[in-house]
Amino acid sequence: MFNSALNIFELDVSNQEKTKWILAKSQVFGGMGSWNDSPGYKAYKLGIKKEYEKVTEELFNQQFILQKKINGEKKISRRRSQLVESI
């Protein structure tokens, strides 16, 4: 999944179109076998539940920011938006 997402950067399309593809590839919340199913339990069993929750929150926040950028909304209300502010 990660390598196929990296291939998006090589596509001959606009940056906005690449952003849409990246957002689609990063939709891991919800559905059977999703991010919130077994990975959360596995993180708990490995003793890294706090790290899992932090990464989950950051991924969700970045998806939110990308969606707002795609929709043309200027105001970013989520924190830690530096990663995608330059898109």
From TrEMBL:
Protein name: Uncharacterized protein
Species in which this protein is naturally found: Enterococcus plantarum
